[in-house]
Amino acid sequence: MKGRLHNHHTERKAIHSVGCAFADFNWIFREQHVGDFGIDAIIETANEEPNGRFAAIQIKGGKYFKRSKSGLTLYFSKRHQQYWETINETMPVFLIAYDSITGFLHWEHFSENSITATKKQWKIIIPFKNVLNEDSKKRLEAIITKDDSIIFDVVLDDLDFLIEKEVVLRYFIKNKRLYCDLSIWKENIFVSIDFNYKPRKHWNDELDKLDSDDPYYYTLIDFEAWINNRYRDLRLNYLTKEALVNIYNELSDLLAVDGIRSLAAFMFDLNNTANGLPSYHQFVEAFTYYYSEKRDFEVMALEEVIVVKSKDEAWRIHTYEGLTLQLKHYIENRSYDEIYVMTNEYIWSEIYIDFGIEKAVFVPVILKEWELYWETKFKEVITGRLKYLEEQKDISRNKLTIFLNLYENTGDIIKLASELDDFILLPIAIISMLQIFDKEICYEEYCEHEFFGIGKWKSIYVNEEKEDDPMFFIQSDY
User: Fold this and answer.
1) Strand 65-67 vs strand 71-76: parallel, antiparallel, or unpaired?
2) Does 104 fall in a domain?
3) Which helix (H) or strand (E) holds 29?
4) Residue in 126, 52, 39 with CA at minimum distance from that of residue 337
5) DSSP string spanning 271-304?
6) SS3 20
7) Total H helices, total E strands in the chain
8) What's the pLDDT at 35?
């Protein structure tokens, strides 16, 4: 659990930092939110307007690299090499490394001159001298615009990136406290918000943002989304200035209670209590009940989970409701990557073994889900990747055929799917299984296994006499 949370933080911090760097160039950064193999974002260069010149970006955190005197060495598979090579025919590919030790971003252009074959795989050295900053903008632009053939039309189903945020936020430190100016896009109107919070060591001067290690980093991400949604709602009945003043008054009243901690509680409850989760303050109460020793601690709200940190310890607090909500989100949205990375294959196997599914029942469902997976992938495809995707689909079809041939000879189809293809076939098999079984029962079974079986969780009842009082689960996050 600790590793997953840490990796999630590092990955999000790296992507956020890269996005900010390209925003400083006034270029367009489009994160690939739907899981994609080997590409995290597409960037588009721009002068005064976007110009249709694109590059693909792969972003990696420090754990993936071997450090040397000259740079960071990334090792990657032949599959990645072929994939990036295919994309490189249409647009340049850049590998960007986030160095968690220094906080710098380093980059290298993927090309036949920059990569080297090893015995079993490939490697590329990303030089320390290639820092992603304003000084490197011209070099990057020269690579991207070198060949006019990279100018092409991109068909994008999701045009959310074209919607300008109407409220612009600018964070800054004044007298060691965190503030935020809220202004309206293209209008000379702004108000300043005092969060009544001193970030200590987690302020990034280069980005003018909190670092992702700060307990309120994710609270401010939710805050930024809420600000713009709230402004749009108010604009239905108020003029621009009146709407902004209303937001200022609402935030001032909220922050007057307990500063940024009040904002964290508000955001967590706004996102979760409607889905049946206990409130932010109930989570904190559960922790103080469990850990009676008095000491300073910080609380981080991370989606449906609360993470509590002291100077030398950390704990994760979860609930049945929160885990069920996560599972529903992964399954109903067909979030293949999250199912693969964030759920436990062993638990899904146990659920399958408990009930079992006849082959005649399962086959039509998994065939439909497999076709849906690839249909979705081809809808997302950009120019130049069709050939690669068709090759990958053929490989996947062969693995599916093997899976179906072995179906009746295995007592655990989840394990079989994982052994054949844990990245694609496993999540498809899990989704297919839940199309047949009662989902709610499966979610309940999963929670039982997680909290009372394989997981190192301890249960917390603040008041056992109240039947409707929430139950919490806590485990060390170190």
Assistant:
1) antiparallel
2) yes
3) strand 28-31
4) 39
5) HHGGGTPPPHHHHHHHHHHH--S----EEEEETT
6) helix
7) 15, 19
8) 46
